[in-house]
Amino acid sequence: MNSTHTLSSWLARLDARETHIAIIGLGYVGLPLALLFSEECFRVTGFDIDAEKVATLNDGRSYIHRIEPEHIAGARAAGFRATTDFSELHECDAILICVPTPLHPDHTPDMSFVTSTVEALAPHTHAGQLLVLESTTYPGTTDELIVPTLERLGRNNLRVLRNGDGHDTLEGLMVAFSPEREDPGNLTTPRREIPKVIGGVDTRATQAAVALYGTIFNRTVAMSSPSAAEMTKLLENIYRCVNIALVNELKQLCLAMGIDIWEVIDAASTKPFGFQAFYPGPGIGGHCIPVDPFYLSWRAKQFNQPTRFIELAGEVNEAMPGFVVHTVERALEREGKSLAEAKVLLLGIAYKRDVDDLRESPALTIFDLLERAGASVSYNDPFFPEVGVGRKYALKRQSTALERVGDFDCVLLVTDHSAYDYAALVEASKIFVDTRNATRGIASGKIVRC
Ligand SMILES: NC(=O)c1ccc[n+]([C@@H]2O[C@H](COP(=O)([O-])OP(=O)(O)OC[C@H]3O[C@@H](n4cnc5c(N)ncnc54)[C@H](O)[C@@H]3O)[C@@H](O)[C@H]2O)c1
């Protein structure tokens, strides 16, 4: 158990790599984070409610495509282990929470994972520990949900340190928010180079979190409060969501006008200032962009404030799968075939290129819309040899071999994985609908760009 009572001794232990770090939620965010700290020679323990994940990791195996088993085995050899037993949190100096924050079907925040995690861990916390929430959430979560829960359920009248509570002494728990900003599949920006935004409830919490994350990130950005840090993450993702909606709308206009939107974006990107490129697609997916903006619009209602950009962007982006299906329908009709009698192959069902993540993928909506229209739908995705039943889907199918592309009336490219040979796929297809401009440079009358 940690007997640290001052911030200076907490920081000294960190410098000496004696800090024991707990990562709660060993998913796409938590597991890589655990490995980064392990590489820095910290003692790291991972906590998850999924016993299968815990057993897999303790066996030195991986369940995330981009994380090699050797990486897990290396961390295991360096002392990393996983557990489902939250009572072990008592031994830890820093507790980092990386659990899901999805939406309810009515687009309101589902905070149940965060709430149940904090309720489960609170009895095992003690003064001198640092607790950081990394999950994306609405501004106010740390102050209004996390802190009161910890103080209600913590033992021995545990308090969370607040500004003005004292100086060096740690007579309570340090609490901060630090959003995860990872971009899955982005191989050009190593995770260490993504600056880490941090906002503590108290300056001691900010200081401790800045020092902790400073061991694995090249740059940290200290903010004045958890709410400001929570809002920063939402601004980033709303900025992305709104700009994607803009190009999705302009794409439809360009198609109607016979202008190539991709050529336009490339040309606009040559401007050295004031323009950042965003690209159109079949809709938005993943755990962040389709979800996070609604956290803010939900919160804004409590302040009687409108969030019109968020709502409009949501409307435009959510209409994209329907636009894609309509394009497929018209392309088939030109060949004298109705959608209801067509066999359609979806290429790529992950929500983005080269990731093994299906969450909120527009492919799932497209699948559904095509089937409702009567089409017979199959898919190919190198990252999903088979797909069963998930939170929002029940595909229960296996990936179709690419050799069978010629059996389909239409091939619809939804996700442009880099493993695909597009020229060969177009050659083998009857109609090739391209939502990603992956066939740029390929001249063929079979290609329908959308
Ligand atoms: N995936 C990304 O690229 C990404 C990027 C930035 C931010 N985020 C945010 O990070 C958070 C985590 O996302 P993720 O993609 O890692 O989710 P994930 O679903 O991949 O992983 C979450 C893990 O938490 C575990 N878990 C759930 N409830 C738990 C509990 N009560 N106690 C312990 N473990 C529990 C799950 O079993 C799972 O292993 C979300 O808020 C998400 O919005 C994700």
Would you mind describing this structure in some detail?
There is one protein chain. By secondary structure, this protein is an alpha/beta fold. It folds into 2 domains: 7-223, Rossmann fold (3-Layer(aba) Sandwich), CATH 3.40.50.720; 240-449, NAD(P)-binding Rossmann-like Domain (Rossmann fold, 3-Layer(aba) Sandwich). 37% of the residues lie in helices and 14% in strands. The chain has helices spanning 7-15, 30-39, 51-58, 69-77, 112-121, 141-153, 203-213, 226-257, 261-268, 292-301, 308-334, 362-372, 422-428; strands spanning 20-24, 43-47, 81-83, 94-97, 130-133, 174-177, 196-200, 220-223, 343-347, 376-380, 386-389, 394-398, 410-413, 432-434, 447-449. The strands form 3 sheets. It has an 8-stranded mixed β-sheet, sandwiched between helices. A 5-stranded parallel β-sheet has the order 10-9-13-14-15, with helices on one face. Helix 5 runs parallel beside helix 6 and helix 11 crosses helix 12. It starts with 6 loop residues before the first helix and ends with a strand. Nicotinamide-adenine-dinucleotide is lined by residues 24-30, 47-50, 53, 98-101, 113, 116-117, 135-136, 180, 182, 184, 287-288. Nicotinamide-adenine-dinucleotide binds at residues 24-30, 47-50, 53, 98-101, 113, 116-117, 135-136, 180, 182, 184, 287-288.
